[in-house]
Each structure stands twice: as C-alpha cells, then as structure tokens.
Design goal:
The chain is α+β, with helices and mostly antiparallel strands. 49% of the residues lie in helices and 12% in strands. The model is unreliable at 600-604 (pLDDT under 50).
C-alpha cells in the first residue's frame, strides 16, 4: 500500500463498499468537521480505468468532501491524501476491516472533550459550527460533562445508562447526585431520580407559577433552573420561592381590591385556601332581581300551564302513562328564564359577609363570595306574639311579647319524632321527591355546599392523590367540572333545581355522587366490579414508571413469563431499569394487568 495525493474529482465511490446501511447518518456533522479541521484520516483507494480511483474505505468522507466542493468551500481538484491498495489486495476485506474493527468513542469521552474545548475558550456556537451540530446539542453535552465524576464513572462501567445520567443532570450538586445514587441503587429509574433530586422544589407546573407566570417571575429578577432534557416547562424549577409568593400576593391583593369595591364587609387573600378554615362560616347567596313585567307575565303563564297539566296527569292515576312531553318543554322554558335571571347580593348580605380571594388549582384567581363569620351572624330574635297590657289606671293597649314554648323538652322531642315519622310515611309514597332529596343531600357533601338536609345520609368524596393524570382520574375530574358548572352553589336554589329536575338528570347526578364516594379499600367491592363488568385493562396500563420499576426483578420476570410463557435468557441478566423498560415494551397493548386487579377484571 502506497501513500499519495489524488485530485478530488478523480475519486469515485466504490460499489463494493460493505457499508450499505446508514451511510448518510451524521453526514452534516462530518462535513462541518472536515471544513473546520481538514481531512484527518486518509482515504483507502484502488486504481480504476482512465486515471480514476475508487474509494474502498472512507465513502462517507468522500461524500462529505464532494458536498464541500459543491458548496464552493473547496476546489473540485483539491488534493486528497490517499492510501493506494496494491493490485493483489482484497478491497472488500479492507472495507470490512475498517467498518467492523473501528471502536466508537464512548459518549462520556465526547462530553468531556466538548467541555475541554470550552475551557480553552471555544464558545458553544463555535463548537456547534465546527462539529455540525446544533447549539442545544452542545449545551446538553456540556451539561452531562458537569455531572458528578462518580456518576460518569458508573456510566462508563455500564452500571448506569444515558437516560439515568440525563436524569442526574437535573441537579448541579454533586453531593446530592451521589447521595441519590447511593439511596436509589435498587430503584434507579430516571423519573425516580428526578423526583428525588427535585423534592421540595417548586416546578413550573405549580399553580402559583401558573398564576404569576414565568414571564412575570423572570422580569422581577427571579432565577430558574431548567432541565435541558425535559420538554417544554416540565423541567423548569423556581429558585426563589419567596419572590414567587411575593408576586402572587401582590397579584391577589390587586384582585381583592376590585372585589372589595363591590361593597363587602371584608376581603381576605389566601395562597392556599383550606376549606376547614371556613367551615364555621355560614353563607349568603345572590338573590334574583325582579323580572321585567313582560317576562314576569310569561313566567306566570308557563307556571300556571305546568301546574294545570301536572294536576291532570296525576289525576289520571295510570302508572304506565308517559310523562307528557309538553311538561318537559314547560320545565325547560321555566328553567331557561330562571337561569338567565340576574342575581345580585343584597345590601344586607354585603354588610355582614365577605369574600375570599385565592389561587385555584388551575392557576387562576378563585373568588368565593358570601362567607359570614360566626361573630357577624345575625342574632336570632325570639318569636313574638301580641298581648293586651292593662295599666294601673285600667286602660289597655296591644303590645308584642316574646313567645315562649310551654312544652317540656321531652315532649318537644317526642312531637318532633312524630313529625319525622309522618314525613317518612309520606315520602315512602313519593319516590320522585325522595330521589330529589337524596341527590340534594349527597351533592351537598360532594360539592362542599352549605345546605343542611334533614336526610341522614352522607357522602364523603374520596381523594385520588397520587394518581393524578391517570385515565380514570381525568374522567372523574371532567365529570366533576361538568356538574359543578350545572348546579347552583346556593343550597336553596339547588334544592329547587333538584325538585324540578327530570328524573333521568337526577339519576345521572346520583350516580356521580355515589361513585365519588367509593373507596375500594373500605370493603368488599368484587360484586360491584362484577356488576359493572369492570375491566382494569381499560383504565390501567402498567409502565416502567407506575409499576415495573416499583417491584422486584423477580416480579418483572414473573409478569413477562405469565404473558409470554418464557423469557429471553439475556433478560434475566439485565439491570432492573432496563428490565422494567423491556416489560413495558413487551406488555404494551397486551391487556395484561397486575394480579391485584384480576379478581375485579371482567372475563373477556
């Protein structure tokens, strides 16, 4: 093999090159590298006819040189260093040797090499241009170069993979990184690493950040920390929580000033509104303003027609008779008028009540009006009756005197019991009203209303903290939002709504209230699951993050065997993080669910 220079336009690609796949991969980076540093490795060529030489090894370098010539950055006849094969050399073997025996640089070496260039004065933009990559790519590699040497060494020894190193890069604190590595040796999933290193920090997704906005926080001088390997704002964290709270309070105070102008006795602001803080308060609600004369006459006519038709329908006494369609239309028309009716707080309500201005869970300003503090509750006046008062001179006059009960406490309790029994006996015959009161009672609890029902049934809405974002959680929150927009926050108005609502609507709301109080840990729920034909595969998909990384390697292997029958021998030797990813991939779309779900999974 001899060494010489050959004009670029005398070189051609050899068709026998063994590299058939991926020849164009990274070509732009190679073009940038040759432009910046020149050709660092000669081409290996074999003589062809008419003074041409075919490149047996170095086809990608030839393609990069030809692109540079086409772009006018080098001359077409630029002299290229080449090793010329002897006539008896096997070009195919030489091509194979170059493509198979070449060892790729470990990524960690590249991270450190880029970092060394920066220390020698090279800018990120300069490095990007010289190596044919984007500036964000260079920034990410430099970020990885600054990860703790302990982490990098574990990566070099294949004890960690690149995804895990990227997760550790969310923090610049080497001690924290190393402590996390030691603590999570058995469960080092990237998502768990990020959670551990950002514990207690305020993410950009937090409601206070949404309320203040990142733009306003940064404009006020607030510093951020960004995870270069996360998408959008998922990896953005607030470094000055005190400034964030100051900005949120200032914004709330501005909103509270506008609310106070409405005439409330008091206004309070809260970053976090705790329901328990206001439990002892009563509520006042806006009252409907008088209707215009024309609308009032229309409403009276509709109500009179409805009352007449209901009386006729009930007098029919035919249990199989369908509810008249006209009555449904009248209910809708009356409901539309009531819904469009303007409601305002009275001067009396404004004089005793206040408003709480806080940040809602969606990051928007949340205003709750009409709270009456215990000290401001109007004092109940004793009922009065009229009586004749005779003066000393014998004249009489009519006066009001407090009305006092002449009943003993046991007798009053006994009579109240009689009234409860009478209500019960009457209600037994009116399932329509019973349904309305049941829905009213349960919804008061589920939607935190201030009503007081005489029905002794209660619903406690279960919390689903910890599974936010799941398919079922999203469905529940969506349904809650729809009903919250439908029903009135005024208990009296809501009770009227329940009494006037169609039974099909009441049944839908009843189903939501009952469902919202379910706790599968409370008791036997298998019969309910069977009645619903529950298939957990429709609601839960096991992933590395939500399941496989949280069980043992043996458990993962068992899950794979249960579905596939057998597992690849290499899987048993894989690291737990890799095995969790394998299980997620292999079981994706299979319908497989953990054993705990199978007793409540419908037969298919």
């Amino acid at each position: 093999m001899t060494t010489t220079t050959i004009p670029l336009n005398k070189l051609t690609a050899w068709r026998g090159n063994v590299r058939k796949t991926g020849a164009d991969n990274g070509l732009s980076e190679l073009v940038a590298s040759i432009a910046a540093h020149g050709l660092l490795q000669p081409l290996i060529v074999r003589p062809e006819s008419r003074g041409k030489h075919a490149v047996a090894a170095g086809g990608r370098r030839l393609a990069a040189l030809q692109l540079l010539a086409k772009a006018g950055k080098i001359d077409p006849d630029t002299a290229i260093d080449c090793h010329v094969l002897s006539s008896d050399a096997d070009a195919a073997e030489i091509s194979l040797v170059e493509n198979t025996l070449r060892e790729q640089m470990h990524p960690a070496d590249q991270f450190e090499a880029f970092n060394a260039l920066v220390h020698r004065g090279a800018s990120v933009a300069d490095i990007a241009a010289r190596f044919g990559v984007t500036e964000p790519v260079v920034a990410k590699r430099l970020k990885l170069a600054r990860v703790s040497p302990v982490i990098i060494e574990a990566y070099r020894r294949s004890k960690l993979d690149l995804e895990q190193v990227m997760a550790f890069a969310i923090s610049d604190d080497h001690k924290a990184q190393e402590k996390c590595l030691k603590a999570m040796r058995q469960d080092c999933h990237p998502s768990r690493i990020r959670e551990h290193l950002t514990e207690g920090e305020i993410a950009a997704s937090h409601k206070l950040v949404k309320y203040v906005t990142l733009k306003a926080y940064e404009k006020a001088g607030g510093q951020l920390r960004r995870d270069l390997f996360a998408e959008d704002d998922d990896g953005v964290f607030i470094l000055d929580p005190e400034l964030l709270q100051t900005l949120a309070v200032a914004k709330l105070e501005k909103a509270a000033k506008a609310v106070a102008a409405e005439g409330w006795k008091w206004t309070e602001i809260r970053l976090e509104r705790e329901w328990a803080e206001w439990n002892k308060c009563s509520r006042v609600y806006p009252e409907p303003v008088p209707l215009a004369n024309k609308v009032a006459k229309k409403l009276a006519a509709l109500e009179a027609e409805k009352e007449k038709l209901e009386a006729e329908w009930e007098a029919n006494n035919d249990e199989d008779a369908e509810y008249p369609e006209r009555l449904r239309e009248l209910s809708d028309l009356i409901g539309d008028i009531d819904e469009e009716r303007e409601r305002v707080y009275t001067k009396e309500a404004l004089s005793v009540a206040g408003a709480v201005v806080s940040v809602g869970h969606n990051g928007r300003c949340d205003i709750e009006r009409g709270y009456v503090l215990p000290a401001d509750k109007p004092k109940k006046t004793a009922p009065v009756r009229t009586a004749l008062k005779t003066s000393d001179d014998g004249t009489t006059e009519t006066v009001e005197v407090p009305e006092t009960s002449t009943l003993s406490k046991p007798l009053a309790e006994n009579l109240t019991l009689h009234k409860s029994a009478a209500l019960t006996a009457e209600l037994i015959e009116r399932p329509d009203i019973a349904l309305a009161y049941l829905v009213y009672t349960l919804a008061n609890d589920v939607f935190d209303l201030d009503g007081h029902s005489c029905v002794g049934i209660r619903a406690e809405r279960e919390s689903f903290d910890g599974i936010e974002g799941s398919k079922a959680f999203t469905a529940i929150e969506a349904a809650h939002g729809r009903w919250a927009e439908t029903i009135s926050g005024n208990p009296d108005a809501f009770l009227k709504w329940c009494l006037d609502a169609d039974q099909s609507v009441l049944l839908d709301l009843l189903a939501f209230c009952v469902a919202a109080s379910i706790d599968a840990a409370r008791g036997n729920h298998d019969e309910l699951a069977a009645a619903l034909k529950l298939d957990m595969a429709n609601w839960f998909t096991p992933t590395a993050g939500n399941y496989f990384s949280r069980i043992s390697k043996a458990g993962i292997i068992e899950a794979l065997k249960a579905y596939k029958g057998s597992v690849a021998p290499a899987w048993g030797k894989a690291k737990k993080t890799d095995l969790a990813a394998i299980a997620e991939r292999e079981l994706s779309g299979s319908g497989w669910v953990p054993e705990i779900f199978r007793s409540t999974t419908a037969e298919t």
